[in-house]
């Protein structure tokens, strides 16, 4: 038992009457900004992890360097 198009239109009409178009537009803008900020933070986090994985650590010696020191 799903929602038909008629039911969705009635719900949409009620939401517009209760909240008004200006408030709905503001909510949409705020939600879009939040999603954009979330995506940017995820991308920056992935780039930081990639940079840490690519950059060699100065204090880590390879097996060959360890054997050369002995």
TrEMBL record:
Subcellular location: Cell membrane
UniProt-listed Gene3D superfamilies: 1.20.5.3310
Record family assignment: Belongs to the TatA/E family.
Membrane topology: Single-pass membrane protein
Function of the molecule: Part of the twin-arginine translocation (Tat) system that transports large folded proteins containing a characteristic twin-arginine motif in their signal peptide across membranes. TatA could form the protein-conducting channel of the Tat system.
PANTHER family: SEC-INDEPENDENT PROTEIN TRANSLOCASE PROTEIN TATA
Keyword Nucleotide-binding belongs to the record: no
Protein name: Sec-independent protein translocase protein TatA
Main location: membrane
Quaternary organization: The Tat system comprises two distinct complexes: a TatABC complex, containing multiple copies of TatA, TatB and TatC subunits, and a separate TatA complex, containing only TatA subunits. Substrates initially bind to the TatABC complex, which probably triggers association of the separate TatA complex to form the active translocon.
Pfam families per the UniProt record, alphabetical: TatA_B_E
Domain of life: Bacteria
Entry-linked HAMAP family: TatA_E
Keywords, comma-separated and alphabetical: Cell membrane, Membrane, Protein transport, Translocation, Transmembrane, Transmembrane helix, Transport
InterPro entries to which the protein is assigned, alphabetical: TatA/B/E, TatA/E
